[in-house]
Amino acid sequence: MKLIDSIIIRIFDFLLASILLILLSPFMILALLMSSLFIGFPPIYTSLRKGKNGLLFRHIKIKSLLPGKEVGRIFLEQHRLNWCGKLLRGCHLDELTELLHIISGKMSFVGPRPLPPKLLKGLNSKTRETVPPGWTCTAQLLLLKRGKLNKHAQIRLDNLYARKRSFFYNIKILAATPRYFLSRSELDLKSDSTPDRLKFKNQNLNS
Description:
- By secondary structure, this protein is mainly α.
- Helices cover about 50% and strands about 10% of the residues.
- The strands form two sheets. It has a two-stranded antiparallel ribbon with strand order 1-2. A two-stranded parallel ribbon has the order 3-4.
């Protein structure tokens, strides 16, 4: 059953991502132009992320941050966000290039967020790595979209998703994503608003 579900999910991902890439290509071109003009050229940002089975892949996004120290958590990078970056991130235009990863099979529409290896160091991430990373998942809906940072809770939710993953479960999460996005409250992006953020902040200041 798991194999059949994986095949159905892969076919669904490929077809939907291909259609969306065609329909949204004008917005992707607009986002690339805006990033080039108001953030800096080239408009593409690449980084190594952990994918399925722990394999690294080069993750491509449209650049939304001004040049500066890369931290990996937006609450410590607010000074690198100008109006253009806020618009690209707020409308998720910077993530349109992830459709290419979904078409290639490196990502799925639903799955744990692809994270840099350094953010997974010391965490039990083997279960979450049995499935492809994705654009949305339970952890994004329950934690990250609310501006919270709790890496251990995120990993637990990712591991739970990996064990429960099925085509219909993915459809349920996809259906909930826009509803939650439209009803969400303003994000709390203070760098010292939780013990986890304060610890992460101190680690980066001292590194």
